[in-house]
Amino acid sequence: MRVLHTSDWHVGRTFHGRDLLGDQEAVLGGLADLVVDEQVDVVVVAGDLYDRAVPSGEAVQTCVRVLARIREAGAQLVVTSGNHDSAARVGAFAEFAAAGGLHLRTQVAGLHVPVELADEHGPVAVYGIPYLEPDPARRALQDCADVPGASAEIESRGHTAVLTEAMNRIRADLAARPDGTRSVVLAHAFVTGGDSSDSERTIAVGGVEQVPGSVFDGVDYVALGHLHGPQRLAEHLRYSGSPLAYSFSEAAQRKSVWLVDLDADGLAGVERRELPVPRRLATVRGELEELLEAPEHAELEDCYLSVTLTDEVRPLEPMRKLQQRFPHAVHLEWKPATGRATAPLRYAEIVRGRDDRALADQFVADCRGSDPTDSERALLGEALRAVAAAEGAK
């Protein structure tokens, strides 16, 4: 059996205000071609199907079209909910969807019940662990403690405790199945040893969010979700990462999926397949005029661009000017080479003994990096006189 491991689609996410639905549909819809070309039997999505608990109608329709294309390509689908999803919304109509080959695993009470598949070597059990918010999951697990492998009480708190309980139930179910049953587990968690990026929402509770990889011992393959960079923690324990970059910290990542092969003895091998990049991410640093004129920056004109300006004086309307050359510039910082913009401001010292006119002049200087001009001082004086007159008329 061949499994395609993906996760963290975040359908509906924007990138610094730019709509990504078109890019998401293009990349995710291309998974259907991969299913055909690589003869994939089942596609697993390890959480964060959507970017928010209540996705827009457009995001839902995009996701429906993508899932339909993958199913039409011939693969079964197993999807779990992540920390960005609403488990109840993602899992709606799960029983009806399963009849069409879309298996939604979002209920804590049923995480020990696998999707049962088979190939020429026998049965394959695919278990989906939805994202387990520690305290609610702890209560939910204790409410259904009458299943094999369940603890009478979960004494510890945190992610490790609830994931350990979930895996105990899964291993107990797997042990009761016929010899030779292969197993795949989907889980949405921060496993120790993984590298994070800037685009993941923290799942820390009480300052602790990581769980040890040993929690997942005893199964053939663990398809992890949550971290957005593709990575291998062990041969059987991997993150696929997100299909698109969602922060500039991911600019150097090559987005991909894992192709997982199971034979009669379990895990036979894992191969990586890189995904297309709709628009490259890049960062650049320099003074505004140099960035606008230097020919060597031509290759950045079609990139999503993060710009750090080093001008000693804050330029006027820098983003508007940058976007004339770089239409996809989406992020801007001003960090003068002298470090003036980052110098700490001591409010009490700044205001002591100064009148409104001096404070207004200082405000302009701090914001822009240069003192106001004579004409600007005249305008500031006019504004302050108007305010004083309005207050005197009350």
UniProtKB/TrEMBL annotation:
Pfam families: Metallophos, SbcD_C
Any single biological process term in GO: DNA recombination
Domain Calcineurin-like phosphoesterase: 1-230
Every Nuclease SbcCD subunit D C-terminal domain range: 278-365
Complex formation: Heterodimer of SbcC and SbcD.
NCBIfam families: sbcd
Protein name per the record: Nuclease SbcCD subunit D
